[in-house]
Design a protein that fits this description.
10 strands; two-stranded antiparallel sheet; 22% strand; six-stranded mixed barrel; single chain
Length: 212
Amino acid sequence: MGIKEVISPANQDEETLADQKYPLHRNIVATVFWVGEEATEENDYITNRESIWDTHWLESYGGVDNPDQRDGWYPQGFIPKENPFYLALPYSDFEEKQQKGNLNFVPWYHEPVADNVSLVKNRWVKIFHQDKVCFGQWEDAGPILTDDVDYVFGTARPRNTFGLKAGIDVSPALRDCLEIGTSARVDWQFVDEEDVPSGPWKQIITRSDPNF
């Protein structure tokens, strides 16, 4: 079944949606992933027991973020140690546990940072789907790609050609907040933390550095 294209929330004008500080990425295919997801054909055999920045992501989070057994915004059985409103975008500032040399693509890069500090991990993202607006933190790289700078930080379309050609992965909590099911088209843009409103996405905020 195809994925229906959506229009940005009708109750917000263009100026509100497209904060000129960061590009607004429109009609991007979003798919669902979760901490502890096993490698399968559907995710190109990529396990999510670890993330691009945390080889112990499952332990750092506190357990498997089961998408089917939920207790409100949380998985059943435990309260996550990290924000359940997380997402993945196809860029990482680390490769083989070392900082990449292309940090200049990151809009908020102004000066060199310590070798163990990520410029993009934990960054806030605003996501729109129909009349829903939700916020989450960037905690992994993907879908599939890890260096799509022209899309993530620019205005190009996603380069991913696998499966549904998704350009963003969202957690079960974001899935439920946005009411997207297993996949949908969304709009998204970066947002500074001081501009993130109160909501369930602020009950637990992830502030951890890369953990290799």
